[in-house]
Amino acid sequence: MNKVVLIGRLTKDPELKYTPGSGTAVTTITLAVDRRFSKDNQREADFIPVVIWGKSAESTAQYMSKGKLMGVSGRIQTRSYEAKDGGRRYVTEVVAEEIKFLEWGNKNQSNEGGFPDNNDNQGYGASFEDMTPIDDGDIPF
Questions:
Q1: Helix, strand counts (H, E) of the chain
Q2: In this structure, are residues 45 and 19 in contact, taking their beta carbons and an 8 Å threshold?
Q3: How many CB atoms sit inside 10 A of residue 39's CB?
Q4: CA angle (9, 10, 12) in 5-degree steps
Q5: pTM of the model
Q6: CA separation, residue 107 to residues 53, 103, 111 (Å)
């Protein structure tokens, strides 16, 4: 089984590219994923490279930007390539199969666009005073 689930923040704005020939959309991002607190209670993070293909890559490039929170599930994949200096390089990355924008918005907007901030206590579940009690005998199951 090869399955990875991550939640983290983008380290920079995604850059959308297209493969030569087929023109398939692809973007590579890096997610900063928090670790549990260490022994001395210092925050630490891992920086995980993630490759996103197709429509998901286009959506990521359009709606996500540096610092936004994102969820990714996918698989770990390794590959190698020959560098410009002639040496062999090995890369381990996550290939996204599903993505979720936990915070989103146009790059030019300052609005986080994520889950609403219900600090004004007028959101869902803010008050139980106006709820009407029901008789359990009326429930058909």
A1: 1, 6
A2: no
A3: 5
A4: 150
A5: 0.70
A6: 20, 12, 9
Residue labelled with tokens 């490039």: 61
Of 18, 16, 44, nearest in space to 29 by CA: 16
56-80: pLDDT as tens digits: 999 999 999 999 999 999 999 999 9
* Inter-residue contact 44 to 17 (CB < 8 Å): no
Ranges of beta strands (E only) in 2-136 are 4-10, 16-18, 25-34, 45-53, 69-82, 88-101
Q: Are 19 and 26 in contact (CB under 8 A)?
A: yes
pLDDT of residue 85: 94
